[in-house]
Amino acid sequence: MKVTVVGAGAVGTTCADNIARKELCEELVIVDIKDGYAQGKALDLTQTTSLLGFDTKITGSTGDYSVTAGTDVAVITSGVPRKPGMTREELIGINAGIVKDVAEQILKYSPNAIIVVISNPMDTMTYLALKSTGLPKNKIIGMGGALDSSRFKTYLSLAMGVSQGDLQANVIGGHGDTTMIPLTRLATWQNVPVSDVLSQEELEKVAADTMVGGATLTKLLGTSAWYAPGAAGAAVVEAIIRDEKKVIPCSVYLEGEYGQSDICIGVPVVLGKNGWEKVIELDLNDEEKAKFAKSAEAVRNMNNELSL
Ligand code: APR
């Protein structure tokens, strides 16, 4: 197996680190546009091999995609952060150019690759990758819901004093502060609804904390987070490469599911060797359905900024 991670920044390198430690592939390539940067990160990670006890071959490349040939799964984290004075539309324009170009380069050398998108705005970049490459829909997966659901479990576990691993909790909808929907009503702790354990007020606080999970970290760190985003990306890659058939919320192209079409947005999907293999349609109540429709509208407005 071969994995390529594009973008040797904070998220890309953390993702690569997790992929290597889990020995998900024999070969791992990191690509960045900054001269020498990916090679440096690859060498640094390689020097952890004997310390951490893994055997993945890690190499770096400055923009030469020929070395990515034969990639099974590619993770796109490349992009630029929003700078002061930059409008969201300008950011979308720049990152769209990067994601489109990267996806094309990957497929030029690895036409069978499955693409995992992390670059923001994630739902829109996933939609763009699908539309610009024309890949089958199951081969393009946006990572956002995996991260948001992990953050949801963190806040639930803190509020309940239980293990995160014993929780089943999904975040669906767009990967944005106001568009994500932590499904508190459906979340369980070892088959016990969390709503039996937490009060309505506590549940609302958990949901609110989850929704600003990324912004809270940006405020604390002065930049956006990388450990959980990188680990979430690696978890998606793992489910694909190991053909786990694991259910993880991801941004995928909908054709009628959840009442939506022609959009990539977060829903629980089964992940396996074919990419995303099935959408799980949860039995949402009217309030949750309305939130999902509103979230889809916001994502669609963002997609309209793309010049496809
Ligand atoms: N090709 C390859 N790499 C590129 C390109 C390109 N065309 N353009 C930019 N990059 C690289 C940058 O050189 C940088 O090393 O992408 C990397 C981005 O890394 P960071 O700036 O550290 O950003 P990071 O925190 O890793 O976030 C990456 O993930 O979670 C999202 O919102 C986040 O969109 C952002 C992405």
List the helices and strands and how they pair.
Elements: E1 2-6, H1 10-21, E2 27-32, H2 37-46, H3 49-52, E3 57-62, E4 73-76, H4 88-109, E5 114-117, H5 122-133, E6 140-142, H6 144-160, E7 167-168, E8 171-173, E9 180-182, E10 188-189, E11 192-193, H7 200-211, H8 213-221, H9 227-241, E12 246-255, E13 261-272, E14 275-279, H10 286-303
Helix pairs in contact: 1-9, 4-5, 5-10, 6-7, 6-9
The chain binds adenosine-5-diphosphoribose.
The site of adenosine-5-diphosphoribose has 25 residues, from helix 1, strand 2 and helix 4.
Which short descriptors sum up this protein?
single chain; 308 residues; alpha/beta; Rossmann fold; L-2-Hydroxyisocaproate Dehydrogenase, Chain A, domain 2; 2 domains; six-stranded parallel sheet; three-stranded antiparallel sheet; 10 helices; 14 strands; globular; binds adenosine-5-diphosphoribose
Task: Explain what you see.
The structure is a single chain. With 308 residues, the chain is an alpha/beta fold. 43% of the residues lie in helices and 22% in strands. It has 2 domains: 2-144, 3-Layer(aba) Sandwich (Rossmann fold); 145-303, Lactate dehydrogenase/glycoside hydrolase, family 4, C-terminal (L-2-Hydroxyisocaproate Dehydrogenase, Chain A, domain 2). The chain has 10 helices and 14 strands. α4 packs across α5 (122-133) and α5 packs across α10 (286-303). The model has no long low-confidence stretch (mean pLDDT 96). Adenosine-5-diphosphoribose binds at residues 6-12, 31-34, 37, 77-79, 81, 98, 101-102, 118-120, 224, 226, 229.
